[in-house]
């Protein structure tokens, strides 16, 4: 069984519609895929409706968190998205993201980039009634306006951290985020903890991981395309020290990441251990 527990669709910062993500997962030889768009579950219904017989979808989400000014990402799985406290935080995050994108459009226009809010909204679309607008949608509008060669160039030149049109966002405390997911009946894993400048520079601090584990963290995504062998080994060791599951995932974003679904996978026994305590939802299996 081949299991990938981290992927993105066009409802957040991937390039492919949820049903196309499922098609790519099947073509990559996967049996189980978690769809984990940023701070939204808007793509789950479309993905679930497109499952071939026997293929398993794990409904999930990548929560935006921050610790001492640095981003920390939490993968939540099989939670109840209508749990009141979690739903309220997700609404706050999405509302802030909309205001953030509008502010970035204003900064771009002030800098002479002919990007309109209406066009950004068109690119983002409306998924299942959920108004999801993020920087990737804005980046595509920047490329259309001729102010960048491609999406990555738009981030590097305009809307990446420290760029002339960058605006900070609201993010959850990671320990609180773990508690919210667990209270909603879900389970969670720390995403790409060493992602950054290489070696262990920029990694999530050990003391924070320990506090997240105490709050109910279930796993660490030690096997990630951005981790080198030493980083993967380090985080496998930390997972063992803390009694946490080791997960492996592609963190695929479609065209932006080279359609790499299945390039890292999670052991079936580890998967069973991770999702075992979940009570908020169940995996969806194609009929």
From TrEMBL:
User: InterPro entries annotated for this entry?
Assistant: PHP_dom (IPR004013), PHP_domain (IPR052018), Pol/His_phosphatase_N (IPR003141), Pol/histidinol_Pase-like (IPR016195)
The Polymerase/histidinol phosphatase N-terminal domain extends over: 3-67
**Pfam families tied to this protein:** PHP
Extent of the signal sequence: none
GO molecular function per UniProt: 5'-3' DNA exonuclease activity; 5'-3' RNA exonuclease activity
PANTHER family registered for this protein in UniProt: EXONUCLEASE, POLYMERASE_HISTIDINOL PHOSPHATASE N-TERMINAL DOMAIN-CONTAINING PROTEIN
Q: What is this protein called?
A: Polymerase/histidinol phosphatase N-terminal domain-containing protein
Gene source species: Spinactinospora alkalitolerans
């Amino acid at each position: 069984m081949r299991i990938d527990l981290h992927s993105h669709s066009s409802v957040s910062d991937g390039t492919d519609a949820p049903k196309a993500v499922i098609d790519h997962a099947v073509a990559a030889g996967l049996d189980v895929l978690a769809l984990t768009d940023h701070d939204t579950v808007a793509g789950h219904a479309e993905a679930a409706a497109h499952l071939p017989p026997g293929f398993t979808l794990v409904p999930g989400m990548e929560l935006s968190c921050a610790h001492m000014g640095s981003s920390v990402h939490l993968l939540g799985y099989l939670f109840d998205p209508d749990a009141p406290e979690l739903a309220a935080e997700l609404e706050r995050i999405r509302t802030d993201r909309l205001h953030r994108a509008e502010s970035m459009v204003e900064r771009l226009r002030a800098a002479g980039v002919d990007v309109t809010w209406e066009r950004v909204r068109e690119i983002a679309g409306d998924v299942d009634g959920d108004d999801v607008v993020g920087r990737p949608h804005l980046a595509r509008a920047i490329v259309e306006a001729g102010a960048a060669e491609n999406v990555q160039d738009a981030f590097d030149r305009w809307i990446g951290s420290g760029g002339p049109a960058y605006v900070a966002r609201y993010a959850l405390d990671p320990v609180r985020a773990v508690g919210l997911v667990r209270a909603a009946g879900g389970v969670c894993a720390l995403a790409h903890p060493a992602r950054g400048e290489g070696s262990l520079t920029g990694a999530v601090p050990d003391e924070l991981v320990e506090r997240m584990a105490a709050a109910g963290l279930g796993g660490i995504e030690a096997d990630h395309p951005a981790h080198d062998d030493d980083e993967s080994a380090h985080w496998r060791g930390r997972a063992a020290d803390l009694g946490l599951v080791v997960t492996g995932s592609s963190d695929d974003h479609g065209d932006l990441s080279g359609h790499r679904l299945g390039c890292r996978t999670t052991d079936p026994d580890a998967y069973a251990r991770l999702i075992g305590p979940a009570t908020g939802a169940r995996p969806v299996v194609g009929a």
